[in-house]
Amino acid sequence: MTARRRRGFTLIEVLASLAVAVLLIIPIARLIAGTAGAFAGLERSTERRVGMQAAMAAAMTLNPLRTGRSVIGRFTVIVEPRRFERDAALAQAGWRLYSVTVRSTDGSEDDVMQTVRLGKLQ
Question: Which domain of life is it from (predicted)?
């Protein structure tokens, strides 16, 4: 009797190749997921930076500085006198130090930006 040649793969060979493929796909999938997460973080960071720049522009439009609240676009700007150890010397020179807080008008109480500005006394 002559031995017949078989064509194709055995079940064990197919399962072994499937296992190798899975072992190669898992790290690639993790790499893609990590890259997507990093990209989402970069996008959030960019949105925050744009928001900060808009808040800074809103705070800089107040001239002259006056104590109180002003709504500028989508921001509420709160100007308050800031205590400073050399207030008397500043006042003698005709200046005052102000704390400027910018908040979003969407109802959140989070400060978008807070800075200190020097303004002329009226």
Answer: Bacteria
CA 100/CA 118 separation, integer angstroms = 10
- Per residue, the 3-state secondary structure of the chain, as one string, reads CCCCCCCCCCHHHHHHHHHHHHHHHHHHHHHHHHHHHHHHHHHHHHHHHHHHHHHHHHHHCCCCCCCEEEEECCEEEEEEECCCCCHHHHHHCCEEEEEEEEEECCCCCCEEEEEEEEEECC
Structure tokens at 102: 């910018």
Number of domains in the chain: 1
Give the gyration radius of the chain's Cα atoms. Answer: 32
**Using a CB cutoff of 8 Å and minimum separation of 24, what contacts does 77-86 make?**
77/101, 77/102, 78/102, 78/103, 82/116
Do the domain assignments include residue 116? yes
Give the predicted TM-score (pTM) of the model: 0.59
Identify whether 19 is part of a domain.
Answer: yes
